[in-house]
Amino acid sequence: MISSLVQYHPRSFREFCYVYPVVSRRSGGLSLGVNLSLSGQCTFSCVYCQVIAEGGQKQIDVNSDFIDFDDLKSELCQLIGMINNGSLFQDSWFSLLPVEKRGLKDIAFSGDGEPTLSSAFPEAVRCVAAVRRQLCNEAVKIVLITNGTMLHTKHVQNAIESMLENNGEIWAKLDAGTPEYFQTIARSSIKYEKILDNLTTLTKRFPAVIQSCFISIQGQPPDNSEIKQYAQRLMSLQTNNILRIQIYTTARNTPEQWVSPLNNEQLDSIAETVRNLTGLQVDTFYSN
Ligand code: SF4
Question: What is the pTM of this model?
């Protein structure tokens, strides 16, 4: 039941523009996504990206998305209200969610692209934090799901600081142990070394979760040497600030037919290797 709810993952809800409810594997339940990337702007072009698969990513100037904060706030308040009064679960799809899973786990900056590319990100953090303080219980997190591209910038670091004062958590992507594999997966003009530098900067200053999506390419999982180098890269970060590693695989549409999810045994085996080599907490999230 939960796995089919997870696979159904539209990034829109009714007539809303910015905020959408999802059942999230990595959140462990109900999450409200906040989309600051209406045109899908991203610095990566991941081979497993659901947004690209659905035609949602367009190449435009990074700051061209206008955010109407009155609308964002109103949508967030409405959806939290619908969760709190139960009306969301009269919706045909969310009615399938078991009663014990109906509490809000987090409000997550995710959406159709890389949230920190939006110049509105710091203001959006302030807006979400104010609504959370007003309407949510203390346990509800504010999550940033990021590919790491902008973590070196002052304005993003300040916004992260403000998130952390409001039960924030940073989930930063690292899908590879080598520059070559990184380019195979992310197909980006950003260099792998730049992403590693930014993750180092992040973990020197803030606690963070590292999230890593591993997949099969033409039926082949990443080889052991790639995973060992990935583990070494993790150890090169400020490990006492790494809260945990989330290892997962794709559960949704991918833009490339030669990409497929790893099976549970393959994911478990990667997680075991990483655990043994790093001593870090590693959680796995299966595709089914
Ligand atoms: S970083 Fe995220 S949004 Fe960007 S291409 Fe990769 S999966 Fe898609």
Answer: 0.94
Summarised one tens digit per residue, pLDDT across range 71-90 is: 999 999 999 999 999 999 99
Q: Which residues line ligand 1 (CB under 6 A)?
A: 42, 44-46, 49, 51, 113-114, 147
DSSP H helices in 237-281: 264-278
Over 90: is that where the pLDDT of 3 sits? Answer: no
- The Cα 148–Cα 199 span in angstroms is 7
Strand 259-261 versus strand 215-217 pairing type: antiparallel
Token output for 116: 């920190």
Tens of pLDDT, residues 175-206: 999 999 999 999 999 999 999 999 999 999 99
Burial of 86 per CB tally in 10 Å (0-12, 13-18, 19+): exposed
Sign of the Cα pseudo-torsion (43, 45, 50, 51, in order): positive
**CA of 150 relative to ligand 1 center, distance in Å:** 14
Task: Report the alpha-carbon distance of residue 74 to residue 34 in Å, rounded.
Answer: 12
**Interatomic CA distance for residues 99 and 148, integer angstroms:** 35
Taking the centre of ligand 1 as the mean of its atom positions, its distance from the CA of residue 137, in whole angstroms, is 30
**CA atoms of 202 and 35, how far apart (whole Å):** 22
d(CA 49, CA 253): 8
Q: Return the SS3 of 277.
A: helix
Summarised one tens digit per residue, pLDDT across range 125-165 is 999 999 999 999 999 999 999 999 999 999 999 999 999 99
pLDDT at 9 over 70: no
Spelled out in words, what is the top-level CATH class assigned to the domain 2-215?
alpha beta
Ranges of each domain in the chain: 2-215
Longest dimension (CA), the chain: 51
45 Cα: distance to centroid of ligand 1 (angstroms): 6
